[in-house]
Amino acid sequence: MSDLNHPWRIGNSAGGVAEEGLLLLRTHEAEELTGLCEVIIVVLTEVPVLGIAIELERRFGEVQLLLPLAVAVGLVADR
To answer: Which helix (DSSP H) or strand (DSSP E) does residue 63 occupy?
Structure first.
């Protein structure tokens, strides 16, 4: 038989009323964080498109002029 008649036992305590209040505060903070995430997503989707591909093609053309012409392309393996 359990000993529930003493003041320090579970049967005579408040039953976690303070913990219920803390759980409500945590849920309220989580709702505020989701609102912040929605704002960040909207800001990140409005990024302007830049013409980077044209600049990269121009750089490849400059490198090609500096290198000698390739005679053949193949796989070299030693056994």
So the answer is: helix 52-66
pTM of the predicted model as reported, rounded to 2 decimal places: 0.12
Q: What tens digit of pLDDT does each residue of 45-67 get?
A: 555 665 555 555 555 555 555 45
Compute the distance between CA of residue 36 and CA of residue 43 in angstroms, rounded to an integer.
11
Dmax (CA) for the chain in angstroms is 96
Q: Which residues are CB-neighbours of 10 under 8 A, at least 6 positions away? A: 4
Q: Which residue has the tokens 């056994």?
A: 79
Cα 18 to Cα 14: distance, rounded to the nearest angstrom:
9
Q: What is residue 77's predicted lDDT score, i.e. its pLDDT?
A: 73
Residue 20's H or E segment, with its range, is helix 17-44
